[in-house]
Amino acid sequence: MEPEEEQRIEKTVRRILEKSNMDEVTEHKIRKEASEELELDLSKKPYKAFVKKVIQTFLEEQAQDQEEEEEQEANDGSREYDDEGNPIICKLSEKRKVTVQDFRRKTLVSIREYYRKDGKELPTSKGISLTEEQWAIFKKNVPAIEKAARKMESKIM
Predict the structure, then answer these.
(1) What kind and span of H or E run contains 89?
(2) CA-to-CA distance for 58 and 35, rounded, in angstroms?
(3) How many domains is the chain built from?
């Protein structure tokens, strides 16, 4: 099978799968519909195996997406919020937290120190708030930061 032909078959099979009711459709029905569209006999051995592989990959991706979605929903339900209503992504220590907040129509990732006042935890000026663009640049450079930190640690020891 030529790579172009494989791509055409995969694209067609995936499109059919995406619009199909997964409780009712069978591999045979998918293969038959794709055969008609492509004007190819996909019931022949190499085609049949390829279509089966495309279907399996699609189903695995769907299952993984659903699992991630369910995990995300579960995490959203148990998420903690600071006293200003911002979601706490993680606690770095008792006083330091990572939150995501909207400030003047901008989403910020804040890594700050907090203090207690009148029973509330409030952010101090100690910390940093990164815009989405700054966060993306930081995230992209984490491997380089880790490498530099390991290098410094090895010099100390």
Answers:
(1) strand 87-91
(2) 18
(3) 2
Mean per-residue pLDDT over the chain, rounded: 89
Helices (H), 39-125: 45-77
Kindly report the pTM of this predicted structure.
0.48
- The yes-or-no verdict on residue 33 having pLDDT over 90 is yes
d(CA 46, CA 69): 35
Q: What 3-state class would DSSP assign to 103?
A: strand
- Considering 43, 76, 109, which residue would you say is the last residue of a domain? 76
Residues 6+ apart with CB under 8 A from 5: none
Give the Cβ contact number of residue 17 at 10 Å. Answer: 17
Distance separating alpha carbons of residues 126 and 37, to the nearest angstrom? 62
pLDDT of 48 over the 90 cut: yes
Whether residue 95 sits in one domain with residue 72: no
Q: CA-to-CA distance for 43 and 27, rounded, in angstroms?
A: 11
